Amino acid sequence: MPKRDKNTIATEKKKEFARLLVEGKLSKPDAYRKAYKRKDMSGEAASKAASRLSKDGEVLRIIGELNAQLDKSAIATKQECLEFLTAVLRTPIGEVGEDSPLCQEVAYTDSGMRKKMPGKIEAVREISKLAGYNEPEKLEVGGLSQIAEVLAGATPDPLVRPGSGKPAVIEFDGIEAAPKDKERRPGLLDGVGGVKI
C-alpha cells in the first residue's frame, strides 16, 4: 500500500470537514473534531480551529461544489418529469402500491384499501406542454417576403401636412364618403348626457 503524503491527508480531512458542514448535521467545532479525529479537543480550541478552517480557500471551494451538487440533485429534470408523467399514463391503478411514487393517497375503508393516483388526462396535458406538442405549427406563406419588400420601400403619407398644420386628406380605395347634402338621421347617442349632436 503506497504511503500517502501530508498534503493528501490534509485535503481528505478538509473534504470530510466540508462534507460534514454541508450535510448540516454537526456544528463547525463538532465537524472539525470528527474530520480531524480530535475528540479530546476542548470546545474553545475546536471552535477556533473550525472557524479558521471554514475560511480556508480550498474548504470554501469544496463546500461550493458540494452545495452545487445538492442543488442539482434536488431539482427534478425535464426528463424525470416526463418519465413520471408517462408512468402515470401507463400504469393501471391496480398495480400502484401504497409505497409507490404514483400513490397520492391511501384510505382504508370497510370494503378494503382505496388508492388515489394522479389523473391520466392531466398527465397527458402536462406531457403535451413539456414535450411541446401544443406549439403552433409554422406555416410558410408564399409572397410575404415580396409584400414586406414593397411595404419597406413605400413612403408613408404624413397624417398632418407639413407647414400647414392641417390634417391630410385620408382617401379610401373603393369606399365613398357619405354625401354631405343628405339629411342626418337621429342616432343612438343623441340626447345622452345632455349632449346634442
Please explain how this structure is put together:
This protein is mainly alpha-helical and 197 residues long. The chain has 7 helices and 2 strands. Helix 1 (6-23) packs across helix 4 (57-74). The longest helix is centred in the N-terminal third of the chain and has 18 residues, at 6-23.
Key terms:
197 residues; mainly alpha; two-stranded antiparallel ribbon; 46% helix
The main pleated sheet reads as:
2 strands, antiparallel
Number of helical elements: 7
Would you tell me the structural class of the helices and strands?
mainly alpha
Describe the strand arrangement of the main beta sheet, using strand numbers: 1-2
Number of strands: 2
What is the percent of helical residues?
Answer: 40-55%
Q: What is the general shape?
A: extended
Strand content: 5-15%
SSE string, helices as H and strands as E: HHHHHEEHH
The residue-averaged pLDDT reads 78
- Flag low-confidence runs: none
Gap between N and C termini: 105 Å
User: What is the CA-atom radius of gyration, in angstroms?
Assistant: 38 Å
Give the secondary structure arrangement, pairings included.
Elements: H1 6-23, H2 28-35, H3 43-54, H4 57-74, H5 78-90, E1 105-109, E2 112-116, H6 120-131, H7 144-153
Helix pairs in contact: 1-2, 1-4, 2-3, 5-6
Provide a short characterization of the protein structure:
The protein is mainly alpha-helical and 197 residues long. Helix content is 46%, strand content 5%. A hairpin with a 2-residue loop joins β1 (105-109) and β2 (112-116).
